[in-house]
Amino acid sequence: MKNSFPFIGLFLLLVPLVTAQLQIGFYNSTCPQAELIVRQVIQQQFETDDTITAALLRMHFHDCFVRGCDASILIDPTNTTPSEKDAGPNQTVRGFNIIDQIKEILEAACPGIVSCADIITLATRESVALAGGPNYSVPTGRRDGQISDPNLVDVPAPQFSVSEALQSFTTKGLTLNDMVTLLGAHTVGVAHCIFFQDRLSDFQGTGMPDPTMDPALVSTLLNLCGTQSDPTAFLDQSTPFVVDNQYYNDILSRRGILQIDQELALDDSSASIVSGFANDALGFQQSFADALVKMGSIDVLVGDAGQIRKNCRVFN
Question: b/e for 8-27, b at 16 or more Cβ within 10 A?
């Protein structure tokens, strides 16, 4: 389904270089059409499936939080060697075929030049802009990792408290403000009922719904989760395909789907940041772009480290 929501918030944000080795325009001389190729593929995909923004944001997050942004999440498992795709949190990560399509075109145009890690980062940027979010400059020059171990996958869980989640983010060099901003990615996408079912009827063993959730939302979700085999709920119930600040208004109204989302609006450490973004759409857009660029620099491989995979699903 093509996105029917207004195309809003598209603007160019200039950001500083993340490191001396990642550069804006890294491929200008070696593969000058690289970013255009990524843009064209994502535009084509978005025309028929506007859920790819949520898929690519999640892929990018799950990649960067495990050994850094090195495309280790793309490696396929074999009969003898598991990969990150086998880990529980990655079972519902999708969009791998989009990365494959981009890589195939880039290999034909510029063999062995553009990394899979940069493809994920650029594809995420393009999908965010198409969904009404910021169009920001992305430093590139990442190289692909050579390890993909499911035992290393340790991403923040939906049931985490703010302090628990923050511990995961700070180990990656991210701040509380970065965390609240990046969780704003839940302005698009869905959650499976299994991840919030306990909030609806037996929250923390009380036999009652989570008292912090709007009772009307509890009723709606109980009906949804009891009528389908593997149902999902929009994390943003008003503009679920648009990258905007509505998510923050939802959680202020006690309409957060995941526990960690609702906790952001209740915890003293993060509540003021939530209120600020809820009242400042442009401020959120700017912070979201900055936080995505910062996340995209986590433990990157550059220079002669790693490799440039020919096929994003297998090591060279």
Answer: ebeeeeebeebeebbebebb
268 is in an annotated binding site: no
pLDDT, position 10: 36
63 is in an annotated binding site: yes
Instruction: Please tell me the pTM assigned to this model.
Output: 0.91
pLDDT at 4: 39
244 marked among binding-site residues: yes
- Average pLDDT on 47-65 reads 97
Rounded to 5 degrees, φ, ψ at 253 are -90, 15
The answer to the question of whether 60 is labelled as a binding residue is no
CATH number, domain 33-152, options 3.40.190.170, 1.10.287.3510, 1.10.510.10, 1.10.520.10: 1.10.520.10
Task: Output the CA–CA distances (angstroms, integers) from residue 52 to 93, 96, 115, 188, 204, in the order listed.
Answer: 11, 11, 20, 10, 33
CATH of 162-295, one of 1.10.10.10, 3.40.50.2300, 1.10.260.40, 1.10.420.10: 1.10.420.10
Asked whether the beta carbons of 75 and 100 are under 8 A apart, the reply is no
Question: Which position among 58, 62, 67, 294 bears the catalytic label?
Answer: 62
The one-letter code for the residue type at 154 is D
pLDDT given at position 310: 97
In the residue annotation, 60 being an active-site residue is answered as no
Confidence band for 96, pLDDT divided at 50, 70 and 90: very high
Average pLDDT for 61-90: 96
pLDDT of res. 83: 97
Measured between its terminal Cα atoms, the distance across the chain in Å is: 37
> Strands (DSSP E) along 111-199, which ranges?
135-136, 139-140, 190-192
